[in-house]
Amino acid sequence: MRFETSTPPDGVDWAAVAAWWDAWGAPIGILIVIVGAFIAFRVVRTIIGRVVGGVVSGVKRRADAADTEALSNSPLAQVRVVQRTRAIGSVLNTMLAWVIAALALILILSILGVNAASLVAMASFLGAAAGIGAQGVIKDFLNGLFMVFEDQVGIGDLVDLGAASGVVESVGIRVTQVRDVEGTLWYVRNGEILRVGNRSQGWARVIIDQAVPYDADVDLVERQLLDVATAMSEEPEWLGRVIDKPETWGIESVSPDAVVLRLVVRTRANARDDVARELRRRVKDGLDELGLDLPSVQKVVGDGLEAKP
């Protein structure tokens, strides 16, 4: 008796299927991983884009602005929300792209038969190479990331970054662009920023150290300075920019030729310079009314330049 074994009972040649899979299984698996990684990245990017777009659209509606550029005429806080949200969205897209790419690479290497020990060794080697060869880039990236998330600077802020001072025009993950008062655009690497002095957040203080003749009536001059500042702060044009009552802090320094008195006005951060210029003009007019012969600036000893805490 002879048994036929060439064709399996169920009609499927599993040996042929196994041989075909041995030949094409790895390429198909790699293709599936690549397509899956691409789809995952598209899905994640779409989700992040919708979240960022929702935040930006909400700000535009509250600001009654038709486009992002129109937000320049809106409150600075709304502009900062848009800039910060988009920067965070860009960072998340980049980070997730690298994570998905790394996972896909690991899966592909596993399909090709690379064992776990080799993968760990390769990851350690790549990490060491990145740490040695790209220390500056990584430092720039991390510092820029913290600057964005902590809202240390924003577009339109007047800042002192140590390396450059001026108005922020762009906040990137690696480089921050600052334009100084002369119009020079400075590109400051985020990794080189050790401190950030921001003059556009919260409130600011206008400090005027006014020198008057040594024999002047200090009390009279102080009252005149305070009256001038108070009258200005109560005018409709300046009422929204001055956020506290003006103060005189008394005598800051004394020299044989002059007495320096300090006048202080607390303002909104973005209105400091405008208030300071107008207040100086009015102080000059107020002192002219008293008929004071002001001492020469070169003779004034400015010992009291430190601001009162």
UniProtKB/TrEMBL annotation:
Domain of life: Bacteria
Spans through the membrane: 20-41, 90-113, 119-138
Record keywords, A-Z: Cell membrane, Membrane, Transmembrane, Transmembrane helix
GO cellular component assignments: plasma membrane
GO molecular function ontology, one term from the record: mechanosensitive monoatomic ion channel activity
Location in the cell: Cell membrane
Major subcellular site: membrane
Domain Mechanosensitive ion channel MscS: 137-198
Signal peptide start and end residues: none
Stretches assigned to the Mechanosensitive ion channel MscS C-terminal domain: 212-293
Pfam families assigned to the protein according to its UniProt record, in alphabetical order: MS_channel_2nd, MS_channel_3rd
Membrane topology recorded in Swiss-Prot or TrEMBL: Multi-pass membrane protein
PANTHER family: MODERATE CONDUCTANCE MECHANOSENSITIVE CHANNEL YBIO
Annotated family: Belongs to the MscS (TC 1.A.23) family.
Protein name: Small conductance mechanosensitive channel
